[in-house]
Amino acid sequence: MDLTQRFGVKRLFYMLFGILPLNGEEVTIMAANISSGNGQSYDPGEGTRIFKGLKPDIVLIQEFNFGSNTDAQLRAFVTDAFGAEFSYVEEGKPSGDIQNGVISRFPILQSGIWDDDDMSNREFVWAQIDVPGEKNLWVISVHFKASSSGASRRVGQARQLAEYIEANVPVDDYLVIGGDFNAQNRTESFLNELDHLVKVTAPWPVDRNGDGDTNAGRSRPYDWVMVEPELNSLEVPTVLGGRSYANGIVFDSRVFTPLSAVAPVLAGDSGASQMQHMAVMRTYDFPPELDDYESWVVERFSAQEYAQGESIWGALADPDGDASVNLLEYAFGTDPTVAGSREKFPEVAIVSGEDVVSFPVREGSALTYELQVSDDLSDFVELSGGVVSDGPVSDGFKMRTVTLPISNKKFFRLKVVR
Questions:
Q1: Would the N or C end of the chain have less CB density within 10 A of its end CB?
Q2: CA–CA gap between residue 244 and residue 144 (Å, rounded)
C-alpha cells in the first residue's frame, strides 16, 4: 500500500521524521477493567477513585456496571469519576452483564456496537471522537475470552474485529483498540490478526517497578492500549507523581508513589476484593490542525529542509534566493525551492486604453490580497474603484483582474496578508 494514501502527506511526514510545526495537545488514553466486588461493578468505589486520581481523557472501560445501569445512574457515575463535560457510550444490559463502554472528554461524534459472535455477555463498542487536530479518533473497547484454554477463541475474536475495522474505520482517522484482551503472554496468536492495524510489539507500559503485567495477580499482560503506527509515533511519556513513564503506566496503587499525587486513590484500591485488573494508560501528543500555509510548507519542503528551521520555511524566508519570500510563493502558487519561479506573479498591462492588473488568488485560503496604488512609489494606499473580476478556478487558483482608467503616472503593488 502507498503510505501517502494510508496516512496522507502531512501525517506521513510527522510519522517518519517526528517534526511538528507547533505544539499539539497531550491526550491520555486508558484501558480499564477495574471493577471490583462481587457484582463486577464500580459501586464499591475503588475503581472510581483510580479514575479520579489518574484523570484520563479517554477511557475504554470494561464491566461498565453502576447501580442498576439506568441512564441517570451511569451519567452520575461518569460525572463523579471524570466530570460533567465527559461523554460516554455503553452497550447496555441487553448485550450482556459485563458490557464494554467508552468515556471521553472530547465530543463523541458517533458510536455503535459490533457483534462479537463468540461472546454472549459483551460486544465490541466503538466510538468516533473529535480529538484535537485535523483527524478524528476511532476507539474500540474490547473484552476477549478469558483463560489459557480460550486462546483459539481469542484468535477468532481478533479476526472478526479486524474485519469490522477494515470495513468501517476511515483510513484517514486515528485508531485505538483497547481493553481486556485476557492475553496470557505478549506473543499470543491473536496478536497476529491485529498487527497490520495496530502496534502490538514492545515497548509496553509498566509500573514503577518495571512490571508490565496487568491481571490481579500481576502475572499476565491482560490489558492493552494498542494504537496504529502513525499515532504510536506521537506517543509521549506519561507523567504521574513526578515520575515519567516513557511508554505509559500500569497503575497499581500498592506500588505507586507518592499516592498524594493521585488523590483520592488509597493504597489498597488496586488490591480490593474482586478487583479485576490494573488500569493501563498511555499519552499521545496530537498534532494541531494546520492552516493552509503550514500544510503547504509540509508538502513543499523536505524533512531535512524543515529541520533547518524558519530560516528555510518561514513565511518571510527566501530559500531559493529569488527575492520572493515563501508567503508570496504560497500566495501565487510558485515553487519556493526554484529560483526565478515567477510565472504566476502579478502583471500590469495597458489594454484598450485601460490599466489592467492581474494576479492569481489562492482559492479557499485565509489570505487577504490588497491592491495598492501610488503616484510616487512612496505613499501607497488601497486602490478604490475599478472593475474587479475573477476567472474560473484552476489548480486551486483563480485569476483576478482589476481594470481602471489609464493615468499618466501610476504605480501598483499587491499586499498579501496571512
A1: N
A2: 30
What predicted TM-score, i.e. pTM, was given to this entire model? Answer: 0.77
**pLDDT 10s digits, 271-320:** 999 999 999 999 999 988 878 888 898 889 988 888 888 899 999 999 99
> Which neighbouring-strand residues pair with 236?
283
Domain holding 316, by residue range, is: 292-332
In sign, the C-alpha dihedral spanning 197, 202, 203, 205 is positive
Could you give the angle at the alpha carbon of 26 between the alpha carbons of 23 and 27, nearest 5°?
150
Q: Report if residue 300 sits inside a domain.
A: yes
CA–CA distances in Å: residue 373 to residues 177, 370, 390? 59, 10, 20
CB 137 within 8 A of CB 174: yes
Q: Does 410 share its domain with 274?
A: no
Sheet holding 411-417, edge to edge: 381-382, 368-374, 411-417
21 contacts: CB under 8 Å, gap ≥ 6 = 290, 294, 297, 298
Residue pair 205/282 in contact (Cβ under 8 Å)? The answer is: yes
Confidence of residue 408 (pLDDT cuts 50, 70, 90): low
* C-beta atoms surrounding 121 within 10 Å: 12
- The grid coordinates listed for 145 are 475470552
Mark whether 356 and 395 lie in a shared domain: yes
Cα-based angle 190, 41, 113 (whole degrees, multiple of 5): 50
Q: How confident is the model at residue 118 (pLDDT cuts 50, 70, 90)?
A: very high
Residue with cell string 485488573: 277
Same-domain check for residues 192 and 297: no
In a domain, 278, yes or no: yes
Q: Round to whole Å and give the CA distance between 68 and 60.
A: 20
**Quick one: three-class SS letters along 171-217?**
CCCEEEEEEECCCCCCCCHHHHHCCCCCCCCCCCCECCCCCCCCECC
The last residue of one of the domains, among 286, 305, 322, is 286
